[in-house]
Amino acid sequence: MVESENFKILWDFTVQCDRKIEARRPDIVFVNKEREVVMIDVAIPGDDRVKDKEPEKLEKYQLLKDEIVKVWHMQKLIVVPVVDGALGAVSVNFKKYMKRIGVNMTLEVIQKTVLLGAAKIFKNKNCLCKKKEKRDLGSVVTCCNPPPRTINKAEHPFLA
């Protein structure tokens, strides 16, 4: 949580409610002193699901939206779904939502960030090879972590 005189930013935060609500953990919540709240929920689905994910996010937080307005005595609360496909597809409302929350980055920068993150996840989680046997150096080698190259001293006489 970050707080100043004018606003509060909450993330990694579960909203406490008077009644049972399943979706109580939006990604980011901004609260300003004018008693306005912006809930942001980010999704990076496969490109073919981008169109479906945005309305799903809006519906998912409707009960929480009503509860926060009532319990926190807020004047206004908006839910902003930030949905960018894993391969760069975006919804038709993407620019409208970015403008609503004051994000001035270009779409290309956001897409590049998503693509680099997806590539990193794929590299770390989906390595297809099996771990190889231990080498002389005692290190375990995988396809994502190639073995250190051994130097043949005969090839490099200056090392002798």
Features:
160 residues, alpha+beta, five-stranded mixed β-sheet, globular, disordered C terminus
Please tell me the overall pLDDT: 79
N to C succession of SSEs = EEEEHHEHH
* Structural class computed from helices and strand pairing: alpha+beta
- Beta-strand share of residues: 15-25%
Strand order of the largest sheet: 1-2-3-4-5
Task: Give me the count of strands.
Answer: 5
Residue runs with pLDDT of under 50 for 5 or more positions: 130-142, 156-160
What would the principal axes of the Cα set say about the shape?
Answer: globular
Largest sheet: 5 strands, mixed
Rg calc: 24 Å
- Specify the number of helices: 4
Summarize the structure.
It is built from four helices and five strands, in the order ββββααβαα. With 160 residues, the chain is α+β, with helices and mostly antiparallel strands.
Write the layout of secondary structure elements.
Layout: E1 2-3, E2 7-11, E3 28-32, E4 36-43, H1 50-60, H2 62-71, E5 76-83, H3 94-100, H4 107-125
Parallel strand pairs: 4-5
Antiparallel strand pairs: 1-2, 2-3, 3-4
